[in-house]
Amino acid sequence: MQQQGPRNFSSIVRLAKGVEMKPAWLSLIIASQFVGLDNEDPYNHLTTFYELCGTMGISGKGEEVAHLRLFPFSLTGKAKHWL
């Protein structure tokens, strides 16, 4: 029997609650997505991701929650499928 509905979904977002996600933040993160191509550097992507998140003015535990909630939006293609 084949599974109906979404096959893959991230548990990260369900665990990370408590910070309001602003549309501008999503736009900022989506503009620098990582696809997972051979010529892409995942460490460079993570550095850029943390730099962008650092501009959002969130501190303390809220910063970690924001990272967890925003990270899936920083991926697309093979990388999103991997997550």
Write a structural description:
By secondary structure, this protein is an all-alpha fold. It has a domain at 39-83. Helix content is 49%, strand content 0%. It contains five helices and no strands. The chain has helices spanning 12-15, 23-30, 42-54, 61-70, 77-82.
Compact description:
This protein is mainly α. It has helices at residues 12-15, 23-30, 42-54, 61-70, 77-82.
Task: Name its key features.
single chain, 83 residues, mainly alpha, globular
Terminal CA distance: 25 Å
The low-confidence runs, each spanning 5 or more residues with pLDDT under 50, are none
Rg calculated over all Cα atoms: 14 Å
Largest beta-sheet characterization: none
Write down the overall geometry: globular
Strand fraction equals: under 5%
Class based on secondary structure composition and strand pairing? mainly alpha
Annotation field: number of helices: 5
Mean pLDDT over the residues: 84
Give the helix level as a range of percent: 40-55%
